[in-house]
Write a structure and sequence with these properties.
Order of helices and strands of chain A: HHEHEEEHEEEEHEEE
Oligomer: heterodimer
Shape of chain B: globular
Number of strands of chain A: 11
Structural class of chain B: alpha+beta
Largest sheet of chain B: 4 strands, antiparallel
Radius of gyration of chain B: 24 Å
Strand content of chain A: 15-25%
Helix content of chain B: 25-40%
Structural class of chain A: alpha+beta
Number of domains of chain B: 1
Number of helices of chain A: 5
Order of helices and strands of chain B: HHEEEEEEEEHHEEHHHHEEEEEEHHH
Helix content of chain A: 10-25%
Number of domains of chain A: 1
Number of strands of chain B: 16
Radius of gyration of chain A: 28 Å
Largest interface: A-B, 60 and 84 residues
Distance between the termini of chain A: 96 Å
Largest sheet of chain A: 6 strands, mixed
Chain lengths: 236, 422
């Protein structure tokens, strides 16, 4: 009987020790971490996608913008290319703003970003001190048309139902949309200040009597006038 | 016989104790103290500040450490030749010492013909000297000859916003294995759509030791002492015992290491002693905010903006054996709204820092604690509204943001109001 008594006393002591003193007795060292090395990014494998049809474009625009904008039926200015450099094809298309849609286009909870391509501030070259003052007013839509851009997702690009990151670009709706390599534009003297080296392609189009490039800066779309020698640009 | 007599009582006491123990084990770690409680003071720095309970060595105080954090260094203390600011507090101050700010730093670089990121070669001193081996461009110099300018060839030009360091002692006290486990769980729970990358980086004060990176936009540092040494050199140009060489010797008048008082220890201790950023007490107390907290999880934001993490038990030896987690930081629940992992959410700028090449387009999930004190959002400060910042997420975050898109305006507004309570 006495043996059992001491057994219980010892057990009780151990419990008390574990409860109130155990954690402070010995130090624990952070264990080394074995990290699986499988995190290498694989760019999406593009499908050999056919040329976009008007029906596909209309469907994509409706999916994202609803009835705020529509693809003009008389003539569709569009292109499909990887504009943001994520390896997935994006869509750029000139769209008509519905007369009642201007307010919706600028709605603060809209599912797209409304941007004025002329109001982009970027860090310039050749300066030691640069003060960034992003005080551009929210774009005011006066034109009847804007350029809609839908960023692609995965191998299907802008055709993917998940591709919903989208932009309505003010002062960017032009004619004769094509794409040119950013490196070529730069080589020919067109400045493309940007915050990401990922994009390889930029839109080139005519706005009025000017040739303009619209490109992804890493955070938004910006515009720059194409230098005159760019007549020899390889466009597609 | 006597034992037999009390046998049932003894057994009852034993089982009751075991029950209490089980309850104690099930109790979640207590929340870390929160507060913006390090007001910036010029006359008597730190005199009104309140720490998180971290004990200070004899003769040292939070006030002294805060004064060192706020100290304006000059050329006599080793400032420059290239630098961005004269003091830690110049960038880490909003709304109190240790918070973030609107100050950004400039990083540049380019890609070679194989697509690999290359740090710039910056020519200074009328073409006679080059600064190499880093993407950072310092905005200031102690003499005109040392001033850095961005060459046209460096066509990747981006900003990095100054980060909050309040509560970073708790972040340091998170076991690296906790971060690695979160990365694994995230992958499993989202079918691989979200795959935070955990990287290990050198602990400068423990040569030869690596640890899970958690500080900086690229998780380039794992300990607050390493972070302090890095910032003292690269943001203020002050060499120290862990990083002893300036990026240039043009106009340099002081001998290395310039941090003769070991200020880096005081910086690290100050950050370890700060409370975590608090919620807005009024906004967070509303039932609407509490309901939206659930919506935040349902949409999927909390996959990466993790709402609660428990720090390692006190007594855990971390940072390659150089720091033991004290009671004030150990076994605490924090609410950083971050997983401290690197993700590609479509905002990458291609710049590689401490991590492997595949981190070029990844950033650490921005901790959302203290978000209500920020106006310029995301790593480059280019998103000015909460909604724009959300919509800017793509890549790994695509399906989460599409969930957000499917909310009605009232629900979106609730999410934004919730963010404004953090």
């Amino acid at each position: 009987m006495r043996f059992h008594h001491w057994t219980y006393v010892c057990l009780l002591s151990l419990i008390l020790l574990a409860a109130f003193g155990g954690s402070r007795v010995e130090k624990r060292r952070e264990a080394p971490v074995a990290v699986p090395q499988d995190s290498t990014e694989v760019p999406p494998t593009k499908l050999n996608s056919p040329a976009p049809t008007n029906a596909e474009i209309t469907q994509a625009v409706a999916r994202i913008f609803g009835n705020v904008v529509s693809v003009p039926q008389r003539r569709t200015d569009f292109l499909s290319a990887d504009l943001n450099g994520d390896g997935s094809d994006d869509l750029a298309v000139v769209v008509d703003l519905h007369p009642q849609g201007k307010r919706s286009a600028a709605d603060q909870f809209a599912n797209w970003s409304l941007q004025d391509v002329r109001s982009v501030e970027l860090p310039p070259a050749h300066t030691a001190v640069y003060t960034y003052s992003p005080n551009a007013p929210r774009p005011e839509i006066r034109a009847r048309q804007v350029l809609a851009v839908v960023h692609g997702y995965g191998p299907k690009g802008w055709r993917d139902a998940e591709a919903k990151q989208a932009y309505l670009l003010v002062h960017a709706a032009g004619d004769h949309l094509s794409v040119a390599r950013i490196s070529e534009l730069e080589r020919q003297g067109t400045p493309i200040p940007r915050m990401s080296a990922n994009p390889s392609w930029a839109i080139v189009e005519s706005i009025g009597n000017r040739e303009v490039t619209i490109y992804w800066t890493g955070a938004q779309y910006a515009a720059a006038d194409v230098t005159k020698s760019a007549g020899q640009l390889t466009k597609r | 016989m006597r034992f037999q007599k009390y046998k049932h009582t003894t057994l009852f006491v034993l089982f009751a104790l075991l029950g209490v123990l089980a309850l104690v084990a099930a109790v979640p770690a207590p929340d870390a103290p929160t507060g913006f409680s390090t007001p910036t003071l010029t006359g008597n720095p730190g005199s009104l500040s309140e720490g998180n309970g971290l004990p200070f060595p004899s003769g040292e105080t939070l006030a002294d450490d805060q004064a060192t954090f706020e100290e304006q260094d000059g050329v006599d203390k080793g400032l420059g030749p290239l630098y961005n600011a004269q003091s830690c507090v110049n960038c880490h101050q909003n709304p109190v010492t240790g918070g973030g700010s609107q100050v950004s730093e400039l990083r540049v670089g380019h890609r070679d013909s194989t697509g690999r990121f290359v740090n710039p070669t910056i020519t200074i001193n009328n073409g006679q000297t080059t600064v190499i081996g880093r993407s950072l461009i310092n905005d200031r110099s102690t003499c005109a000859e040392a001033a850095e300018r961005v060459p046209d060839s460096e066509n990747m030009r981006t900003f990095r916003m100054s980060l909050n360091v309040l509560g970073d002692g708790y972040v340091e006290a998170i076991d690296s294995n906790t971060l690695a486990a979160m990365a694994l769980n995230q992958r499993q729970q989202t079918g691989g759509r979200i795959a935070g990358e955990f990287i290990q980086v050198p602990v400068l004060e423990a040569p030869g030791n690596n640890r899970g990176g958690r500080f900086g936009w690229k998780n380039q540092q794992a300990s607050l002492l390493s972070f302090s040494a890095d910032a003292y050199l690269n943001e203020q140009g002050i060499t120290n015992r862990l990083l002893g060489t300036d990026s240039t010797s043009i106009c340099k008048t002081t001998a290395d290491p310039e941090d003769v008082d070991n200020d880096i220890d005081r910086f690290a201790q100050f950050m370890r002693a700060t409370k975590a950023p608090p919620l807005d007490p009024v906004a967070a107390a509303t039932s609407a905010a509490q309901a939206v907290s659930t919506l935040f999880n349902q949409v999927g934001c909390a996959n990466c903006h993790v709402t609660a993490i428990t720090t390692a038990p006190s007594g855990t030896v971390i940072n390659g054996g150089q720091f033991t987690v004290p009671d004030a930081l150990g076994n605490k629940t924090i609410h950083p709204y971050s997983d401290f992992l690197l993700h590609n959410v479509g905002t990458g700028d291609g710049i590689v820092q401490n991590g492997p090449a595949d981190t070029a387009n990844k950033f650490r999930t921005a901790p959302l604690w203290g978000l209500r004190t920020r106006d310029r959002l995301m790593h480059d400060g280019q998103s000015l509204t909460r909604n724009d910042a959300i919509l800017r997420h793509a890549g790994e975050a695509t399906f989460v943001i599409n969930n957000y898109r499917s909310l009605n305006s009232a629900q979106k507004n609730q999410i934004l109001q919730f963010l404004n309570s953090l």
